[in-house]
Design goal:
The chain is of the alpha+beta class and about 525 residues long. The chain has helices at about 5-20, 25-40, 80-90, 110, 145-185, 205-210, 220-230, 235-240, 290-325, 330-360, 375-390, 410-425, 455-460, 480-490; strands at about 45-55, 60-65, 95-100, 120-125, 130-140, 190-195, 200, 250-255, 260-270, 280-285, 370-375, 395-400, 405, 435-440, 445-450, 495-500, 505-515. The chain contains 14 helices and 17 strands.
Length: about 525
């Protein structure tokens, strides 16, 4: 096939594909068109095309011409045929089989019944030099001067391979677009895709949401953002978020003008090539007005419940604390009962605080009020309280007299209570719990160390997650929402929490918090705790 014939065939094929674009069977239709057109140009052999079907993992016969194979058993899964295909894929070269020989593979017996004497199979490659199809000729009489004819059919197979690859890419693209559009329609999301400073795609919901015309998409990205921002109550903040580093993902909630207010969640994700290069950004907008209204009502309810419960629980805690002091003249039995009341009321108070905090940390815009807090005093008070609630366990504090940090006192108290309560729950009552407070430059470091049975590697992976897998939690109850909330509130205070196994058994939880006094001297430890 010379160049003129190739260009003519490709031009006709392009017109056929343009007419058939959107048809779900375009891969079969295009393959059959190629077979029929090639047979018109070069009559003689029977022809077939097989393409690799990744879904079913078989070499699917998609088109046949010049030979009726409809009543023959398909050999797509025949082991001898697969060996034959493997040879073609490995060498990426044509394979010629003479069926007049006695050692003919059993997979070829069907075509022999049609009088076929010779099979020529050429590989069809995609753009990555991978064999994804087979172009087979069935000769009832092998032609003379076969070497020249083999070269001709090799050139034809290259042209067929390009056309098939184009159709497969087109169908894949159409399927992906159809699935994407269906997904957007089902979820009601507005979407826009941009490359650099240009918009490549936007669905109708996006245009409706932001009051844009289809012609506006011809504007550059900054001009479109300007048109969108006039519908927002805080356009400057939004433009700053979406114009940030394009390599970073964005998850932001905006409020649109109007009564009542509408809330839109904007999620932007960078799309990358297999090599990791940024090729574009996909933005998805979802209206969450109803969810925001429900959230506000829920937060208001939780805040009311927390406020109403806090006062009576604080009274119970205070009375139990006062009645269990050494100067109180109560019997040991009454004292133990009072400590039980104190323990449970403290646990209930922490639970209410955690429930309220859980509702807050879900809001990306929530930020706790931070001030200077003496972490050393806070930790000592909590350790002293635990010593009185659980007097049978050694609670050992090692740290300076003061340690000013930047944070929220109530939330830091919750974090310390979570760590001390977990250490008490997951270690034997006679084993000590060590609490060490120090500093690393501008960061305060709090370590809570126990001699419990430790944490499995599976559980350690989800230790600070919201809902740990209950099948991986120990029978004693496991670590639940407390550590998750600790991580979330510490992140809001530019702090962190981490876990590591303790040498000789047990766990170490380390909290790092920014110090309030920049350049302060590092406090030396007041004593040394040896492993026990």
């Amino acid at each position: 096939m010379n160049n003129d014939m190739s260009f003519q065939l490709i031009a006709e094929f392009q017109r056929f594909v343009d007419r058939s674009r959107g048809d779900a069977n375009i891969r079969f239709m295009a393959s059959q068109w190629i077979i029929d057109r090639v047979l018109q140009m070069f009559p003689g052999p029977g022809l077939s095309i097989r393409l690799w079907n990744p879904k079913w993992e078989i070499w699917e016969r998609v088109a046949v011409g010049g030979l009726d194979l409809s009543r023959d058993e398909d050999i797509a899964e025949n082991p001898q045929f697969l060996t034959y295909v493997h040879l073609i894929r490995q060498d990426k070269e044509p394979v010629y089989v003479d069926l007049t020989k006695t050692d003919v593979p059993s997979c070829c017996h069907g075509v022999i019944s049609h009088g076929v004497e010779s099979l020529w199979t050429f590989p069809l490659s995609n753009g990555h030099d991978e064999v994804t199809g087979l172009f087979t000729l069935y000769w009832t009489h092998e032609p003379k001067a076969s070497q020249e004819i083999k070269m001709r059919w090799s050139n034809i197979s290259h042209t067929v391979g390009m056309m098939i690859h184009w159709v497969v890419m087109l169908q894949t693209q159409q399927n992906e677009q159809t699935m994407m559009q269906t997904l957007l329609d089902l979820t009601g999301m507005a979407a826009v895709y941009s490359q650099g400073n240009e918009v490549g795609y936007a669905n109708d919901r996006f245009l409706q949401l932001w009051g844009l015309a289809r012609s506006d998409l011809r504007l550059d990205r900054d001009q479109i953002l300007k048109k969108m921002s006039v519908r927002l109550t805080d356009p400057a903040a939004w433009c700053e978020v979406v114009s940030s580093n394009p390599a970073e993902d964005v998850d932001h909630i905006v409020e649109m003008k109007g009564m009542p207010a509408r809330y839109i969640r904007c999620r932007i994700h960078g799309l990358r090539s297999p090599s990791g290069q940024l090729i574009g950004r996909l933005a998805v907008y979802t209206e969450i007005t109803e969810q925001m209204a429900i959230k506000k009502e829920r937060d208001a309810f939780l805040s009311l419940v927390a406020h109403e419960f806090r006062t009576p629980i604080t009274v119970i805690e205070g009375l139990a604390d006062w009645m269990t002091r050494p100067e109180s003249a109560v019997s040991s039995e009454v004292g133990e009962n009072l400590r039980a009341i104190w323990r449970e009321s403290s646990r209930l108070a922490r639970l209410i605080r955690e429930i309220w905090t859980a509702s807050q940390v879900q809001d990306p815009s929530w930020a706790p009020n931070c001030d200077k807090v003496d972490l050393a005093s806070l930790v000592r008070d909590e350790v002293e309280m635990r010593g009185r609630i659980w007097p049978g366990r050694p609670w050992r504090y090692d740290g300076p007299g003061t340690m000013p940090v930047v944070g929220n006192a109530e939330l830091l108290t919750m974090v310390v209570q979570v760590l001390l309560s977990n250490a008490n729950r997951f270690s034997d009552s006679e084993k000590p719990v060590d609490i060490r407070l120090g500093a690393d430059g501008l960061t305060a470091r709090l370590e809570v160390m126990d001699r419990g049975f430790g944490i499995s590697s599976l559980m350690a992976k989800e230790l600070f997650e919201h809902m740990p897998d209950p099948t991986k939690r120990p029978a004693t109850g496991g670590i639940g929402i407390g550590l998750y909330l600790s991580r979330k509130v510490l992140e809001k205070m530019q702090a962190s929490i981490a876990y590591q196994p303790r040498p000789y058994g047990g766990s170490i939880f380390t909290v790092r918090i920014p110090r309030a006094l920049r350049g302060a001297k590092r406090f030396p430890p007041s004593s040394t705790i040896e492993p026990t």
